[in-house]
Write a structure and sequence with these properties.
The structure is a single chain. The protein has about 600 residues and is α/β, with parallel strands linked by helices. The strands form two sheets. It has an eight-stranded mixed beta sheet. α9 (about 200-210) links the parallel β5 and β6. The longest helix is centred in the N-terminal third of the chain and has 24 residues, at about 40-60.
Length: about 600
């Protein structure tokens, strides 16, 4: 029976494939594909883990006190029986052999299958045995962690070596942004999560991957089974499970149409982004990892407007990158961009982008009631001065190889500004003392807290440029956790207060003769392009996959005509509706003139 699940559309397009479930577990589980030559070794890992757990259970039974209840011994016998049951270990081997899952993923996938079977049993006693299966699997996962790192990275060739024929889509309760990076070059055509908001960092990474995605789908991971055929409609935020042949054919037609549209937009790659009235607009790329830089060039970006360095620090078991490793990563991006500017943001962790626990401060941060308001971004960097200076030195060293700009996230107080420049001065002195080359870099502030937007004139006395992080600016202005699907409907980039802060920041920067850009999701949303151009914005930074669509909008408009309507939109109680009434006719008119 066809089933529809509704969520939030976060990455456009249509994906069709068999469901791969990433089950939630109380034990951290790595999910990655292994290469064919590692299949036997992975099965051996599973065998060793099973033998270790069997010995552990046998030891518990052997050492049981004489007065222990008989039920306890019987329970250990049940666990030993389950441990050697082919429905668990035998089927887990099949996931490894056929899908090339790592052992941990294979176990969690088979647990999902067995758990569903137990849930459907009519007998209450048998249904409750699901807990025994879960406990055995968790023992196995812990044993696997002892004979191979639970968070180990996948082999570089693994995604390409996977031998399946059917396309796959990923279904999960949630996917951490760092885990998303492991799937970045994988076989998945799209993904669905139970939780999350449109501008959660998981959604942002999905858009950077250019694959359809739906988040906040609530019960999706419970309603969808392993290997179900699934359609992900990233435009409407709908997930269709077990579609009929007619529905399937309709969506395959839409897929073909989307591919043709992408091919048409790709022809604009080398066309300069200039409006009809001759205003040149800078279209930059947001990237997460050094290997994303070539894709930015390929998409026609004229530089990197935001390099999110925090992803270099994730999925490392607490072993954070040293100065030389960071320097090599930053230099790789600078050299890959072939002389175009690269804006490197200092580490922005916290909220939905935590690091592995590594310090007292980080440990404290993990337990704050509202991490979005806690030790984040520049606050965290200033609380770890040696690490902050290390990153600053690495960025400065990379500046010797091309045009580098430094961007500081989440500044709120002028005291933070002064501390940041003191740290930068000390980092420069340390490099000079060591005889290492660097150049003076432009330094910018991210405006993503209302307190910063309201005093941007003061900030501009210190900084060479500002960059509006609209995702967090909306979150903090409206008191909405952008990763929480329960309040996602209140996250509104069209809110009059948000638009006023954006417009005033752009106006202040232009009046001061300082560069201003937007690097949040608003920059890559074509619904806002005309309004932002009318406000005076001339620098947009977005995911490379969005550049062609935004460029097409820019080529069709006259900014002088758009500017005439901005104040009316800002004064409106319903800016989105007013913008549609005033600016869409302009867009239609310019579209006609352009042709």
């Amino acid at each position: 029976m066809t089933l529809q699940v509704f969520g939030l559309p976060v990455a456009r397009g249509v994906a069709i494939g068999k469901a791969v479930l990433v089950a939630s577990s109380r034990v951290d589980v790595a999910h990655y594909f292994i290469s064919p030559d590692r299949v036997e070794a992975e099965i051996d890992r599973l065998r060793q883990a099973r033998d270790a757990v069997a010995e552990e259970l046998a030891g518990l039974k052997r050492d049981m006190p004489a007065d222990a209840p008989a039920e306890l011994a019987a329970l250990l016998d049940v666990h030993l029986m389950l441990l050697h049951d082919e429905a668990l270990t035998g089927a887990t081997k099949q996931w490894i052999v056929e899908r090339h899952y790592n052992a941990e993923w294979a176990l969690s996938a088979q647990l999902e299958v067995l758990a569903r079977q137990f849930d459907e049993m009519e007998d209450d006693y048998l249904r409750e045995r699901k807990a025994d299966i879960e406990q055995v699997v968790e023992r196995l996962l812990r044993a696997l962690g002892r004979n191979g790192s639970v968070l180990s990275a996948p082999p570089a060739s693994a995604p390409h070596d996977w031998g399946g024929e059917d396309p796959l889509v990923l279904i999960a309760n949630d996917i951490a942004p760092a885990d998303m990076l492991q799937f970045k070059r994988s076989v998945f055509q799209g993904f669905v999560t139970d939780v999350g908001g449109k501008t959660s960092h998981t959604a942002i990474v999905a858009r950077s991957m250019g694959i359809p995605a739906v988040v906040g789908a609530r019960e999706a991971s419970h309603l969808i089974r392993q290997d179900d055929w699934v359609i992900i409609d990233g435009d409407a935020g709908v997930v269709i499970v077990d579609p009929s042949p007619i529905i399937l054919e309709e969506y395959r037609f839409r897929q073909r149409q989307s591919e043709l549209e992408r091919e048409r937009l790709a022809r604009l790659r080398h066309t300069p982004a200039v409006t009809l009235d001759g205003e040149r607009v800078e279209l930059l790329a947001n990237i997460e990892l050094p290997q994303d830089a070539p894709g930015a060039l390929q998409a026609g970006a004229v530089g990197v407007g935001l390099f999110r360095t925090e992803f270099l620090f994730m999925n490392r078991n607490g072993a954070l990158p040293g100065e030389d490793e960071q320097f090599e990563a930053y230099r790789a991006v600078v050299q890959a961009m072939q002389g175009l500017p690269v804006t490197i943001r200092t580490i922005d962790i916290g909220a939905d982008k935590p690091l592995e626990r590594m310090s007292h401060n980080e440990l404290r941060h993990e337990h704050t009631l509202n991490p979005a308001m806690g030790l984040r971004a520049i606050r965290w960097s200033l609380s770890e001065p040696s690490m902050f200076r290390m990153q600053l030195r690495a960025i400065l060293r990379a500046s010797a190889y091309g045009k580098v700009r430094l961007l500081i996230p989440m500044l709120t107080h002028l005291a933070e500004v002064r501390q940041t420049f003191e740290a930068l001065a000390r980092a420069k002195q340390q490099l000079s003392d060591a005889g290492l080359p660097y150049t003076d870099v432009e330094v910018g502030a991210m405006i993503e807290v209302p307190g910063a937007a309201l005093q941007v004139e003061r900030f501009l006395r210190y900084f060479d440029f500002v960059s509006l992080g609209t995702n967090d600016l909306i979150q903090y202005t409206l008191a909405i956790d952008r990763a929480d699907e329960a309040v996602a409907h209140l996250y509104d980039p069209w809110h009059p207060a948000v638009l006023r802060l954006v417009a005033d920041t752009i106006a202040c920067a232009r009046a001061a003769g300082k560069a201003v850009s937007i690097c949040g999701e608003m920059a890559g949303d074509p619904a806002f392009t005309a309004l932002l151009l009318g406000m005076g914005l001339r620098s947009f930074s977005m995911h490379p996959s969005q550049i062609a669509t935004i460029k097409q909008r820019i080529l069709r408009v006259d900014t002088r005509r758009l500017a005439q309507h901005v104040q009316t939109v800002l004064a409106s109680e319903n800016p989105q509706e007013t913008c549609g009434q005033l600016l869409r006719p302009e867009l239609a008119r310019e579209h006609t003139l352009a042709h």
